[in-house]
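User: Run a structure prediction on this.
Assistant: Running it now.
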Amino acid sequence: MDNLPALHTRKARVEFGHVTPIDETAIPFAIIESAEPGPTLLITAGVHGSEFCSVEAAVRIMQIKPEEIKGTLVILPILNVQGFHKRNIYIMPQDGKNLNRMFPGNPEGSTSERLASWLVTRVYPQVDAYLDMHGGDLDEGLEPFTIFPAGSEKSQAMAAAFGIPVLVAAGGAGYTVDASGKLGIPSILPEVSGNGLWGEATVTQLTDGVRRVMQHLGMVADAPKKTAEATKVVTMWVPTAPVTGLWYPRKDLTETVGVGELLGEIKNVFGEVLARIQSEKVGFVLYRLTSLAVNQGEALIGVGTPVSA
């Protein structure tokens, strides 16, 4: 089966199975449909196969019963199946590319480009809202945040409903939520946990956020209360490594930084400094590479800069 079953039958049902849109890769899915009409929410996880917190959260959401909701939930809990089982960082093993940089994809391209194209052309147009869960890869430390396509008021409202206080207004192309946003679908990408770790607190943070989004969309009546902490909208600047070497960050998560301040150094094994990374922005640290090893072109650190009101 190279496409999902019909999403709307007007009958209460739970349907589990596998869809094989590319390269004999069977992607698990769940369709949970209520007898009561309502929105269709797409939830994906495992775009990066080793972000295990997102996968476990999606697996738990698959246990929701039709009588608990209005509308339809479509859940793809592990998009990068081979990456998940091989514990790869970022990439799809079939082509060595980062799926979350390949959107809107290419139907004649490599594996990740074709999977992105399938999502954009066959799945996104059938849904009313989209939530792509991430969980901090094996080499990432991060403070939780939710990305939304900059300029989309509906997406920003969904991000606020999710309940993480830091919202990142993202520009650029190649991302899941950028491609869906360009189709007019309110879309968000929450990031919780880090270093591939998962546990009750972080998984619950994601599943509670999903329930709050469902309440926001009118799919459920009740959801866990979110923190009283004020929402902060930021942009994020992420410098990449100019050289390959050993990475020594000088700033920890949530620390404030100023323009020109040292964020970290890349050295060789003999202690020679190969590159000094200085901040181009004022803000605070949302993300940082936790690996000692770094390769040229890899993301090093994310500085969140509050958006002026």
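Helices lie at 52-61, 81-86, 111-123, 153-162, 176-182, 200-217.
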